[in-house]
Amino acid sequence: MKIEIKDIKETKSAYISVTGPYDQLPELFGEVVGYVMKENLQITEPPYGIYMNNPMEVSPEELQYEVGITFTGDADGEGKVKIKDIPAHQAVSTIYKGPYGQAAQIYHDLIKYTQENGYNIVGPVKEIYINNPMEVAENELLTEVQFPVMKK
Predict the structure, then answer these.
(1) Is the pLDDT of residue 103 over 80?
(2) Which among 66, 125, 141, 150 is least surrounded, fewest beta carbons within 10 Å?
(3) Could you tell me the residue range of the domain that residue 41 belongs to?
(4) DSSP label at 123?
(5) 3-class DSSP assignment, residue 9
């Protein structure tokens, strides 16, 4: 597994913030992607999820997360879909191959890497879903896992 510190460029995101079970994810991703397409915005990376708490520590009803997609263009949001600017930053990153529910196993390796290389994690984990589970087998799914970091 290749772990690296990446420079993330400033961008805009269409997103929905949610509290509740993860079973809402497919519908929420559909809403966000549908909004971006309807507005004719240029998508700059695959859809992502940011996870604020740990499903091993809270009930499904207490899970807090955000689903979104980055884009270029102008938009104001609509309904549940909000727009935000994401500032440039650094992130510790790796690509995970396999089922979504097992991607968390590499979080420990990313945390260890940051500690060993003089970085502090400064925000929640972000998972970028590189390919589509409707198009590839579960063991072929690719997920980029990132934690935002700052040098100590």
Answers:
(1) no
(2) 150
(3) 4-151
(4) S
(5) coil
